[in-house]
Amino acid sequence: xxxxxxLAATAGNGGKRAMMCRVTFAAALVLVAGCAAEPVPTATxxxxxxxxxxDNAHRIQxxxxxxxxxxxxxxxxxVPPVKTSKSVNDRAYLGDYAAMxxxxxxxxxxxxxxxxxxxxxxxxxxxxEDSPNSAIxxxxxxxxxxxxxxxxxxxxxRAIKEVTGKVVKDENDLYAQEDATVEKVLDRELNxxxxxxxxxxxxxxxxxGKGYSVADTRPSTLHTWGWRMxxxxxxxxxxxxxxxxxxxxAKHGQYTMPVISVAxxxxxxxxxxxxxxxxLACGKDFYAAYSPRNAEIQQRVALEFGGGDY
Length: 310
Known about the structure:
By secondary structure, the chain is mainly alpha-helical.
């Protein structure tokens, strides 16, 4: 599934922290606390946009570094590396049928894959440990860390305002605003496109013919219906396990990842792969038309908000 870079402060899939998911339904993005996913690939080579995104990210980091220094905190401006090659996953994200088929045969919608194959490492470009600030944070006491995080949040909000004009309180607020913007742009530009609407209707009819219940065939919704169906299964399992849910996390669409046995993970994953392949068989033409435009919109909106992680 399409995904945005995970937060630099929460990297390392299966790492030391309890795993959490941040779900952004508008873009069908999953951020797993402890996992730094690859950046969203561009739909077409756009050197100017890429340069501006990089410039914005470096400007923001420079401002954060100066701000933290003035407040007496050590902070090294750092921008995660930019990906230059295109993997099978990237091509799948952009709607290439052969790549999508390969990815879905291997990972389905990517929801239960980690439970069925817990020893498989996620493909990542960078993790929090790569940041020079990781070592700085590890040397702080709990009280110092709380003060550090509070000041870093304030400095990043200031930097984003200075570079982009956006007013954000913290990372959750930033992503909420970004997600809402993506949703509006997708609805305006893609859900009203006659060709995409026609292809989505054809895909929906095909899925219904295979026995699936697809109530909403708007392009931006149909694009993620299968992923959301299995993500809902994970959320239901999370609600019914013995782990207490954090109210603050829940307010931001986050939840503590449930403990699922490998056997159960494989059972759910087998179902997921079957649905994912049926979805692709019905949506081959739809994805080829929709996915590149979706990728361009994701990139465009990310640039509006600074072109990088909070």
